[in-house]
Amino acid sequence: MFGSLILLTQFFTRIPIPYEIPDATAKFKKSIQYFTLFGFLIGCLEAFFFWLMTLIFPSWFAWILFWVADGILTGGFHLDSLADTADGLYSSRTVDRIKEIMKDSRIGTMGSLALIYFYAIVMGAGVVCSQYLATWQFVALATCTTMVAKSGMALLFYKMVYAGKTKGLGNLWTGVATWRIVIAQLFSILVIGGLLGFPGLGGYLAVVLGALWYRHYITHKLGGFTGDTIGAYGELAQVAFLLVLTALVRAFG
After folding, report:
1. Of these four, 27, 92, 181, 229, which has the most CB atoms within 10 Å of its CB?
2. What does DSSP assign to residue 90?
3. 78/141 Cα distance (integer angstroms)
């Protein structure tokens, strides 16, 4: 387990861990049951920072700083995927050209808009929730929001088809055993249900339904997944989670 957590930390964050994992590619496929645990641990770290900021600033502003810290800690790993995916999918080009656009390091109009919309929604949701949640609940929300990105991505690994022509990052997640994905999701359900109750579980359900739709859309559009389209759903999962949770919190107090 510890080897898996170290590998995931090295891959998804900027935290320097000078430890080499042997046969890392095979290790990735055998680490998915710890995927959401990893997200939870990173979420705890970011949530601790958020809590510290609430001692100095209003909750809504601490929430903004939480997202800044998340971007620094992860290096904007999934944000880059979101922008690349938006540029590719909304280019109205052929499949091969879409994939080429996704590989381009430059950001286009749709990628820029995707990032603006993403931050507008997640930060706006935090402003709304700050009116209804106690500090400890807000800290729990920060933890779960970080974790749910990995929950959403793990759902895509079920019998996933890789759309790339070469051995890209997306190929790391093909052939993942179903039981590993189930364990990852059960962990998410227990954490979210225990910390956030009904509104949290409603948000998680939105992530699951969103994954089903997204899987169908991407498979139909590209014939399978790439590393960018997988990472993009990590951010989209957070959007779906926060939108539904915020609506339920506001509706039921």
Report:
1. 229
2. T
3. 19
The single-letter DSSP state of residue 39 is: H
CA quadruple 169, 172, 178, 183: dihedral positive or negative?
negative
Rounded CA-CA distance 245/253 in Å is 11
Query: Strand pairing partners for 225?
Result: 162
Model confidence pLDDT, tens digit, residues 166-222: 666 667 778 888 999 999 999 999 999 999 999 999 999 999 999 999 999 999 888
Q: Is 162 helix (H, G, I), strand (E, B) or coil?
A: strand
Six token digits for residue 188: 């998410």
Structure tokens at 179: 């039981």
Q: How far is it, in rounded angstroms, from Cα 141 to Cα 146?
A: 9
Q: Are 56 and 155 in contact, with CB atoms under 8 Å apart? A: no
247-251: long-range contacts at Cβ-Cβ below 8 A with a sequence spacing of 24 or more?
248/198, 248/199, 248/202, 248/203, 249/128, 249/129, 249/132, 249/133, 249/199, 250/128, 250/132
Q: Return d(Cα 86, Cα 98) in angstroms, integer.
A: 10
Name residue 123's amino acid.
M
C-alpha dist (Å) from residue 200 to 38, 98, 212: 19, 35, 19
Which long-range contacts does 92-98 make (Cβ < 8 Å, 24+ apart)?
95/221, 95/222, 95/223, 98/221, 98/222
Closest CA to 206 of 251, 151, 244: 244
pLDDT at 134 over 70: yes
Provide the token pair at 155.
């759902």
Q: How many residues are recorded in the chain? A: 253
* H runs (alpha helix) in 130-226: 135-156, 178-222
